[in-house]
Specification:
The complex is a heterodimer of chains A (110) and B (119).
Chain A lengths: L8 E4 L5 E6 L10 E6 L6 E4 L13 E6 L2 E6 L8 E9 L4 E4 L3 E5 L1
Parallel strand pairs in A: 1-9
Antiparallel strand pairs in A: 2-6, 3-4, 3-7, 5-6, 7-8, 7-9
Chain B lengths: L2 E4 L3 E3 L5 E8 L7 E7 L5 E8 L5 E3 L7 E6 L4 E6 L8 E8 L6 E4 L3 E5 L2
Parallel strand pairs in B: 2-11
Antiparallel strand pairs in B: 1-3, 3-8, 4-5, 4-9, 5-6, 7-8, 9-10, 9-11
The chains are: A mainly beta (110), B mainly beta (119).
């Protein structure tokens, strides 16, 4: 069971804004930065957000990240059908001395 | 552009070993590390470890310590991940990804290699 807790599913209609949460602890999110990955069906993961709120080149500004205390969030505004994917948060854990992934959130665009 | 190309799918028997390769191009290989992540069928992502292509330093996931070895060959810009004493629950797609540090982001990913462990 993942120590980073994400809701298993989320949904929204085109144009809506949705948020996905990622809850951790003081040994991971509380003391390290959070990265977010998007995995489209049948493909490899793709870096979506790094260092809590930074977007790699080419990622639309509809995607944004934030962190507060031991939790982080990914927000997607102007939802599009192509955003339908699995989303994972990840952070280094000082106790495990390794990276933890959240369990993933399956986003459905209705 | 950065590209990571992985080896083909493998089928192994329980107790055997598997080695997955990951050939990098489009950047200076020794300036980054390689992260390995696996994904069991229908499951989430699991971090396996990281290796520096600069000096070979490694950081392995605790649950895989003793069974996994990550190496790099800078002459061919290729990273390798060997997993030993395979079990059925090692069946997964194995991904390599470029990462500056063990704790950092993985910014470019390989296409994945399916490893099936079955008797």
């Amino acid at each position: 069971q993942s120590v980073l807790t994400q809701p298993p599913s989320a949904s929204g209609t085109p144009g809506q804004r949705v948020t996905i949460s990622c809850s951790g602890s003081s040994s991971n999110i509380g003391s390290n930065t959070v990265n977010w990955y998007q995995q489209l069906p049948g493909t490899a993961p793709k870096l979506l957000i790094y260092s809590n709120n930074q977007r790699p080149s080419g990622v639309p500004d509809r995607f944004s990240g934030s962190k507060s205390g031991t939790s982080a969030s990914l927000a997607i505004s102007g939802l599009q059908s192509e955003d339908e994917a699995d989303y994972y948060c990840a952070a280094w854990d000082d106790s495990l001395n390794g990276v933890l992934f959240g369990g993933g959130t399956k986003l459905t665009v209705l | 552009q950065v590209q990571l190309v992985q080896s083909e799918a493998e089928v192994k028997k329980p107790g055997a070993s598997v080695r997955v390769s990951c050939k990098a191009s489009g950047y200076t290989f020794s300036s980054y590390g390689i992260t390995w992540v696996r994904q069991a069928p229908g499951q989430g992502l699991e971090w396996m470890g990281w290796i520096s292509a600069y000096n070979g330093n490694t950081n392995y996931a605790q649950k895989l310590q003793g069974r996994v070895t990550m190496t790099t060959d800078t002459s061919t810009s290729t990273a390798y991940m060997e997993l030993r004493s395979l079990r059925s629950d090692d069946t997964a797609v194995y991904y390599c990804a470029r990462g500056m540090a063990a704790a950092g982001m993985a910014d470019s990913w390989g296409q994945g290699t399916l490893v099936t462990v079955s008797s």
